[in-house]
Amino acid sequence: MDAHRFRSSDPIAWCPGCGNFGLLKAVQKALEKLDISSNKILLVSGIGQAAKLPHYVIANCFNGLHGRALPVAAAAKMVNKELTVLVTTGDGDCYGEGGNHFVHNIRRNVDITVIVHNNQIYGLTKGQASPTSDPGVVTKVQTHGVILERFNPLELAVSLGAGFVARGFVSKNDHLTDLIVEGVKHNGFSLIDVLQPCVSFNRKNTYKWYSERVYDISEDDSYDPCDKIAAYVKLEEWEDKIPIGIIYKKDKASYHEKSGLDKRIAPVEEEIDAIDIKSVLQDYLV
Amino acid sequence: MDADELTIRIAGEAGQGMQTIGTALSAILKKGGYYLFTNKDYMSRIRGGNNFMQMRISCRPVDALRGRCDLMMALNRESINIHKGSLDKKGYIIADKGKFGIKEDTHNIIDVPLHKLALKTGGDEIYVNSVACGFIASLLHIDFSIIDATLTQIFAKKGKEVIENNRKAAASGYEYDDLHREKPSYKIRPSDLPEHLLIDGNQAIALGAIAAGCKFYTAYPMTPSTSILNTVAHHADRFNIVVEQAEDEIAAINMAVGASFAGVRAMTGTSGGGLALMGEGVSLAGMTETGVVIADSQRPGPATGLPTRTEQGDLNFAIHLGHGDFVKAVYSPGTIEEAFYLTIKAFTIAERYQIPVIILTDQHLADSVYNVKCFDLSKVLNKRFLISKKDAECTKNYMRYALTENGISPKAVPSWIKDVIYADSDEHTEEGHITESSRVRVSMMRKRYCKRLDLLRNEITAPAADNVEDADVVCLGFGSTRNVIKEACAVLKAEGNKIGAVHLPQVWPFPARQLQNLFNGKKRIITIENNAGAQLAGLLRRETGFAAESSILSYDGRPFSVDSLMDSIKERI
User: Fold this and answer.
1) Contact B238 A280 (CB under 8 A)
2) pTM value?
3) Cα B17 to Cα B486: distance, rounded to the nearest angstrom
4) In this prediction, does ipTM exceed 0.90?
C-alpha cells in the first residue's frame, strides 16, 4: 500500500521516538485506504506538536490557533460539504484551551473526525500537566504532583451524545489506522483519543506503561459498543487496564441532515452576483 | 425648532407594548405623508422597569432626535414622573387617569380611558395599544382609512377577529373626544411620499450582508448586536445562508474564519465585550490572510457596562484589535444607508484584500429608524476575488502565500483546485508551511502588512463634508453622530455661524490625507463623540498632527439630541 501519496516534503519537527510519528503513519495509511483525493481532504489543527501533523500530509491544511481547531473545522464542513474534514489536535489543545468547543461540537455533530494526540502532558511548552495527566505526576508547575481529577474525554463524549467514541494506541498502528478509517466513514462527530507517548516530558506514561495496559476491546465478544452504560463502565478503566478500539458507536442524524444542508447545494457553490435582495426589501417598504 | 414637527414619547414598563405601538404608529404616520425618526431607550430586563420609544414627526426629512418631547403617552403611572422633565413647557401627557388612580387636576394631562376603551371594543387590555394609536393619529388629523389599512396589514396573520378588534379599538381612540377640554391639534403638512424603507441600523447591516452574498453568519447573542443575527436568520433559508449560534465569541470568530477559508463570505457580530474575546481570532484572520467581516455594535463599557445603551467607546480598541502588526479596515456608518452600503463594501474589501474588516456601529444607530429611499441595488455587483471554479481547473503549483507584485496572493477554494492549500497561523513560507527563517519572516511581513497597508490607504471611503469650505469651525465625528452633528451645524449655520461638519464613515486606515486636504491646517476643529476618552481627537492628533481645539463628549449612555448638541457647540464657538 502506498501511503507515499500523502506524505509531504515538509521536514518533520518532532523529537526522535515521538509517538506522533506513529500517528502520522496511521493517518497516511488511513487516507490511502479511504482512497479520497488529497484535494478533497481538509486537516485542521490548533497549536502544539500534534498540530504540526497536517503539514506532513498532502491534503488541505488549516493550522489555526491553540484550542480553536474545532470551530474552524465545523464551519468549513458546514459550507463546503465536499471536503472530508479531520482534526488533529492534542490533549491540551482539545480538552484544555479548546474545552468549550469540544463540548459544543459534539452536540453539533458535524461530520468531522477528531484525532486527539493524547500524551497526557504539554510537550511544546515543555512539560506542564495537561487535563489528561494522571494525578500525582510532578512537573515544574505542579511541583507537588497533579491534584486535579484526570479529564476523561471519552466518557464526557459519550455523555454528550457523541456517536463514535474510540481510543487508539500508536504502537498498535494497524488497529489505529482502521479506527481512523471507521471514524471518517462515520457520518457525524467521531472522536479518536490516541495514546501517544511523549518521550521528552512524560516519564510516567511511556510506551512500556501503555503496552502493559492496553487491550483490544473487540476481543471481548460480550462487549456491545452500542450499549451506553457498558461504555461508561469500560471508560472507568484506566490504572490497571486500558481498553482500545471503538468503545461506543451510535448512528444518529448529522448536522447536515438535521439542518437540511445535505439536501441543498453547498453554500460555497452559490453564485452571489445576482442576489435578489429586492424582494426582501419589499417587506420593509412602507 | 418650529411647528413643522412634533416629538412624541411613548413610555411604560418593558413588556407593555411600546414596540407594537411604535411599529404601527410609524407605518401610519409614514403613510399619512410624514417623515419620522424613531429611537428606542430600554433597560436591560424583560419585564418592568421603564422603557420609551421616541418619535419625531416632520414635514421634512428628520434623522436625529430632539431633547424634549411635545407629547408623552404614559402607559403606566410611573412614566409620568420619570419623563415629565423631558416634556416641553407647552407639552401634554396622555394618560389613563382612571386606571392610574390620578385624582388631581393636572393641567397638562389629557385623560384618555385607554383601558376602558380597550375592554369595551376588543374585550382585552392588549388593545390599549391600538386605542393609543388611534388617539394619537387623530391629534395629527390623519385619515382613519390609513389607520385601518395599516392595522389590517400588521395583524393580517392573526385572523379576522383580531384585525376587527384592533380596528374597533383604534376607532374608539380616534373618535374619543370627551376630554373636558380642547383636544390638542397638530397640523403638520403632509407630503405625497414615495415608498420608503423603515428599517433600523442593524437591519440595514443584516440586509447588506445578505445582499453582499454572505453565506455564513455566526454570533453569540449580545445586546445590541443580536438583531443582526435575528434578521439574517429570518432570511437565511431563502439565500442558503448557514446561520449558527456560537457557543462563545471565540468560536464565532474562528468559525467565520473557517467558513471563509473554505470559500464563502463569512461574518460575525457582537458588542465590545465579545469583540474583546475575538482579539486572537482577528489576528488569525490577519496572519492567514482570510477575509472576514465583524460587526461591533457598541454599548457603554467597560466590562458589562450599560448593556442596552449607546456609546462610541470602542474606537481605539477596534482599530488596534488583535496582537501583532497586520492590516484591517474599520468602517463607522452614520446613517441607515451607510449601514447597508458599507457592509457590502466591507465584504468586498475583506475578500479582495484578504483582511478582517470591522463595522463599528452602536445601539443608537442599531435601534434608530427613519424614512430612507429604497437602496440602489444597481451598485451591488459582488465581484469575487478568488480563483473561480473554472480557473481552478487549470491552476497548477498553487501556493497560498505566493509572493506577488502587490502582495496579495490569489485565493483558491479548497476542493476546487487540484492542488492542496496550506494555511497557517504560524509564520509561514509561500507554500504555507511553518518557518522560523528571518528572511522569510521579513518578506511575509512586507507582503502581508507593509504593502497591504499602502493598498488599503488608497481604498479609503471619503469623509462626508458639509459647509467646510467657508467654515471657521468644523465639527468632526464618526459613526452614529453623523445625523445629529449635521443637523446641529446646519441650524447654527443658518443662524449666521461659520460652521461646518465632517463625518468619518471609515476610521481605519485613517483618512489622514483626506482630512489634511479638508482642514487645510486652517480650521478650528471640535470633535463630537459618545465617549469619555475623546478617542477621535486622540486618533486625529496621532494620524494627522491636527489638534482638536476641544471635544464635546457625552457618555451617559444616551445619544446626543440636536438641542443639547447645539447648546454645547454654542458654548465653544
Assistant:
1) yes
2) 0.97
3) 32
4) yes
